[in-house]
Every structure is written in structure tokens, then in C-alpha cells.
Amino acid sequence: MALASTETTATTIDFGPAAALSCRECGARYELGPSFACIECFGPLEIAYDFGAVSREQISAGPTNIWRYRSLLPVPADVADKPNMAPGWTKLVRADRLARELGIRSLHVKDDSGNPTHSFKDRVVAIAVEAARNFGFHTLSCSSTGNLAGAVTAAAARAGLDACVFIPADLEQAKIVMASVYGGKLVGIEGSYDEVNRFCSELIGDPLGDRWGFVNVNLRPYYAEGSKTLAYEIAEQLGWRLPDQIVIPVASGSQLTKIDKGFGELIKLGLVEEKPYRIFGAQAAGCSPVSTAYRAGRDVIQPVKPDTIAKSLAIGNPADGPYVLDIARRTGGAVEDVTDEEIVDAIRLLARTEGIFAETAGGVTVGVLRKLVAEGRLDPDAETVVLNTGDGLKTLDAVAGHARPTAVIRPSLDAFRAAVAG
Amino acid sequence: MALASTETTATTIDFGPAAALSCRECGARYELGPSFACIECFGPLEIAYDFGAVSREQISAGPTNIWRYRSLLPVPADVADKPNMAPGWTKLVRADRLARELGIRSLHVKDDSGNPTHSFKDRVVAIAVEAARNFGFHTLSCSSTGNLAGAVTAAAARAGLDACVFIPADLEQAKIVMASVYGGKLVGIEGSYDEVNRFCSELIGDPLGDRWGFVNVNLRPYYAEGSKTLAYEIAEQLGWRLPDQIVIPVASGSQLTKIDKGFGELIKLGLVEEKPYRIFGAQAAGCSPVSTAYRAGRDVIQPVKPDTIAKSLAIGNPADGPYVLDIARRTGGAVEDVTDEEIVDAIRLLARTEGIFAETAGGVTVGVLRKLVAEGRLDPDAETVVLNTGDGLKTLDAVAGHARPTAVIRPSLDAFRAAVAG
């Protein structure tokens, strides 16, 4: 099978409406291939499209997963029929109780913990799997802060591909178990995420990594497009309308830039009315290179050594940081950060008001939302969306100290009266 | 608000198409109320309906959650607009790779780990919350083996109700954290689930438990109906068709009996064609009172003291056990059990073939499916569905010994070559 797909690569490649790779910096265009950097200027490559006519009706008639937007993604028209994780169409939860506590009028939580491996990463990986198939790769790989590793190994299992993924060795147990249970190879690296990432770049140039698809390296232009589906879903779930304000976590920064791209495409295609929207980036204080640059009014990101419980956002040298700064400034948003203590408080706040148990990354966005409201930097009367991109079950330790039984008792009414109801 | 709802109870009670409570044993009928046992014969009460006309089109036009079936459930017509967890419409995953390994033709996994708190319990609790609102209860409660406690405390948080839930004190950490993070009271009981359950029955008769809705005791007739939505979804997702064979976990047995009820309703309402289907119950060998009775050809369930890693199925005295025996025998199915080792093997098998990380309960159903196929007791050519009712992240310990990094290395190609790719 591997042979056949290599031989027929030229004729079977099908990226749907994707037309080319184009450099985000200099605009140079390239054929669709497993490339990620411009050979002219080393800028990052992204997908350029020739969109056909796309209607709300056509989308709404699609499956209840990201493939309803297949005509806006670099995937073949029959993608929904292939074995993949079919992520997306997660809930946009109306958060009235949280809104009331924060003192804002209209708030929704886009809750991506409902994805198959319980983080938004299933979205990006699903697109990368199609690219890997197109290019005849046999092994799916990535550098990961944890969630991505689980998403990649699960997707590879389902697609019948090999997997070999790389993580910092000191991750949460839940993420380690999840990344290895699907049967691929999981390699712990003694070092930070940024060191894992550098290692993967080396591996890609080595014969060892031949015909490997690194979802967030050589497949990155395809992979990154998966985040656009968050924008599409939010708009469709609001009744084909953009929100006024949105709070998005910033790790590499890719997700935030792609949500902005997605909103822009919806406007251009006439699927939503044009209107201004403000994009806010959220970081953990213990890994805040982008918010630090934002506050200082700088365009350049100074890499940092992460030290935060929000490990899924612990990227000290974020590739798309400068674009995040651009977008926050252009849309009238901001980039802000919160301490680990504020993250834990925000996880608990979201849980007790809305019944949503978020990962630390969700504590970061809700914490930043709360901070921005308190400081009067977010309009309390405007329609607001906050993202939860992961699941509390993966970062139990963050709240374990606060989440214990009220009491442990013998099974008797007297014991209950004495310990709990007295 | 509590006052108002008490005063207006008589006029605002709205259970949609539900007409009465009726005794499963003697058929005696009662007004809809917070009762669960027949005063004539002590049999369990269940919901009797006056269904209006229900069409496939009407259902398909509904929301992508269990409320699309609101006209088949004891809930008001506007239930989707109220703050609740909106569970359901989880994936029915086509499992070709697993089917191939098992040697069967057509297999789907109904994957309920996609629910808001990652178990099927969100379905039953969502119905119970509506009943609690109808009866003016201020506190939501339950006895639980873990998953239910999380589902109840999350749903109470979102609905703005108090929660006080009871669990055996020795549960998995993930379930304890999840059940307490939403801010309700979590009480650990020194004893088995069956002792927790007995304690709750005492509490219900005590003034301490006044105006408490115990979802699986005094709200049980409403609560249990939530499991019917699994039957509805499976049929709709198969293209409005019943499967030939289905494997369902058995704890109290309620879920299995309600799936059978749901299939029956779909036939009666003309929503699917009538056809025979076989229902198989799955238990853990360490808590197998129903499969033991099945094998022995008995009608009576002998209670056991559970000892299994499948804690969510560890009910030693299953209330609906006799009905499970009836249904398995009537439909030509069976009740079977698997050892803890077979459970772990099955979790890993499902993960590496389909990218689905199941709770131990999912290991039980997949393990029993495998055993039934191997023993020739399940038709390999018939359309088969197996349920996964919970999430692997909640029972990490079951697989932690098998799910470790392949290697931990320095970030260098030499180290990688030596440890992994050599």
C-alpha cells in the first residue's frame, strides 16, 4: 500500500480548494507540498485557496464535525468518508452564570474539550492526516506539550498509520498515558518543549525521518488551517454572526492567527456580515513572551524559559508571536497574562458556574477574561466568546488540592449529620 | 425563586409526553411525582407516555443533543432553552479496523466518552434535572460509582442547583477530583457502592434529605429514561435502522433495559422498520451477578461483593438484573463477563485500532464482544454495535502499566538512534 501511494502520488493528490502554498512574509507562491518555509525569505508558508461558491445551506447540510467546512479546507471532497477522528462541532455554551459573576452581558464558552481526545488539537491533526495521506507518508509525528501527542497517536491509530511522537519528559501523567495508549511510539525528551521542537527539526533533515509527516513542522501549513474551523463554528453557532470580542489562548500563536483568518474568510465569502471584532490573546505569566512584548509596545518576541502549570501553553519561543501582536493591535484587542494562582481560580470559577471542567489552558483564557473585564479593557456589553481548548481531566494536579471530598464518613445518618449537614 | 416554584408547582409541572408512572410489575398507574416504587407490589415505577405523532424529519431538525428526542422523553417542549448540559449526539464510530481484528463484518462503537463529563451519565442526569425543577427540589444528589457524581455536580452547577453526592471513598482520583471541582458537596462513604446506595435510601426518608432530588432514587423513573436516547441515536445514526446485535455494559442493568425500551418505541412509532435484534449484556468477572445467573439458567440474582477494576460497573446487587436476564433471553442474546486482564487488553485493542480511549467499562464491552465472537455466539456477518460508556482518562491506572514512553532520551539524533530507531 505504501508503494502504491508513492507511485500514484502525482495523480491522486487532492487538496480540495487549496491552490498553492504562499509565503506569509513575501507572498512567493509554491506548489502544494510538504514544505513549511519560504526559500526566498524563510517566512512561514500558508495555504492559498481558490474558493468556489460556498453557501450557509451547503455547510449546514454537512456532517456535525469539521468536515461540514471541507470546501474551506485543504482536504478532498470525500474526506468525511475516510477513517479519521471527525473532530469539531463542539459546543458553544451560553454562559449566563459566569457572565453574571464577571459582570458582562453576553458570554459564550467555545468548549473544545468535547473533541475526541479532548483538546482542540484533534482539529489540526485531522487536516494533517489528509496531507500525510496525500504525500504518501507512513509515519505521523510531532513535537508536543502533551495534547498534540495524544491527538496524533489516536488519529494515526484510526487511519492505520505509524506514529512516533516527542514530548518533554516531565508532562502530566494523563497526557503521557493518553499519548502511549494508542500504540504508537512515544519518546520523552529530557528538555523543554522548545528543545523537543529543535530536535524534530533535526530529525526531519535526517534519513531517520524520511517519509515522516511531522504535523506541526513539515505539514504545518495544512495542520494550522484546522484552527480556522473554530472561527467557522463560532460564527455558525452564533447564527452566522461574528462575536464582538474573543479571548484565545496563545502558545505558538497559530490558533489565534487562524481564527482571525477564518473570520476574514467568512466575511469575504459573504457568509457573515462584515463588522469589527476584537481579538484578545491569553498567556500564563510563567510563559508570557507575547503579552510581555505587547505591554512593552515591541514588535519582537524575546524567548523565555517557561515555568507554569499551563504546560499546554508553555512555548517559550512562539513562532507566530509577531502575528499575534499585529492582530491584537489591529483589531483593538490586547494580549494579557495571568498567574498560576489566577489560572486555578479561573478553572474553579468556570466549573462551579457552568459545569465545564477546563484544562489549565482554559483557566488561562477565563482568567484573562476576568482580568480584562475587571480592568475595564473589555466591553461588558459586547458579545463575547472565550475558548476552552482542553480538558480538566488532563491537568488534574492543578486543582487536586482544592477538589477533595467534603468529608469521608461511615454510612450512617448520624455520621452525615455530624460531618456535613450539622 | 425557590418559593415561587413551590407555590406554582401544580400549574407549572410539565413532563411533555409523559402521562403517568406505571409499575413495571403489576401495571398500577400513578400521577407523575417523585416516587419510584409501587405501593401495591413494591415493583419499580417507570414512565408511561401518550406520544403524539413523531416524524424523522421533526427529530432531524432538532438540536445536535438528546433534546432532538424531547417528544419521546419526560421533559417540557422548551427544554433545550434551559441551562443544562445538553448531552448526547455522541459519535457512532465505524470501526473497520477493530472489526477486521475480531473477524466480523460490520461494527460500530457508540462512543459516549464524548459527553460533557465524558460518560453516558450526562444523558440520564439531564432528564433528572428537569424532574428536579418540576418538583421544586433545591438539591441534586445521588449514590455513585464515580461517573454519576461528576455528571450530577456539573449539571447542578450549570442549572444553579445545590449538589450533595455520595461515593465509595476508594474511587479513582480523576473521578473524585471531577466530582468535587464543580463546587457541590462530595461525601466519601467508607463502604461499597451498595452501602452508599442503602445510605441514600435512608437519607431520603429523613428530614435532612427533604426537597432533595436523588437522581437515581426518587427521580429514578425520569432519570432512567435518559438511556433511551442511546437507542434513538444509534438507530438514527445507522440511517434509521436498528442494529442486528448490540453489546451493552451491565451495572444496575437499567441502561440495557432502556435501550431495549427505546428500540421498541421506535418500532411502535414507525420510525424504524420492525426487525429482530439481539441484546448482549457485559459484566466484569469481578462483579458478575447477572452473567452468573444467566449462565446458571436462573431468574434470581444472587448479590456479590465486587472486586474489579471496572468500578463504574461494580454494583453487586443490580436492581434491574432480572429484567436484563429477560431481555437477553427474549432477544436471543446473552450476558457474559471478562476478567480484569481481558478488560485491559480490550481497552488497548480499541485504542490502537480505532483511536478511542475507553474507560474500564468500555474494556468490558469490547472484551465481551471479542469473547462472544471467539466462541461463535455472536454472528460475525450481522451488523453489530458495541457501547463505550466512559472515558479512559478517568481510569488511567488500569492501563498506566502498559502506557509508558517507549524511551526517555536526550534531544539528539544519536540518542534517538540508539534508543528507538536503532
Automatic annotation (TrEMBL), chains A, B:
Enzyme Commission number(s) of this protein: 4.2.3.1
Keyword Cell cycle attributed: no
Positions where N6-(pyridoxal phosphate)lysine occurs in the chain: 121
The UniProt record lists the keyword Lyase: yes
Tryptophan synthase beta chain-like PALP domain ranges (all copies): 86-390
Cofactors demanded by this protein: pyridoxal 5'-phosphate
Cross-referenced InterPro entries: Ser/Thr_Dehydratase, Thr_synthase-like, TrpB-like_PALP, TrpB-like_PALP_sf
Enzyme class: lyase
Keywords: Lyase, Pyridoxal phosphate
Alphabetical GO biological process terms: isoleucine biosynthetic process; L-serine catabolic process; L-threonine catabolic process; threonine biosynthetic process
GO molecular function: L-serine ammonia-lyase activity; threonine deaminase activity; threonine synthase activity
PANTHER family in UniProt: L-THREONINE DEHYDRATASE CATABOLIC TDCB, THREONINE DEHYDRATASE, MITOCHONDRIAL-RELATED
Family as reported in the entry's similarity comment: Belongs to the threonine synthase family.
Name the UniProt record assigns to this protein: Threonine synthase
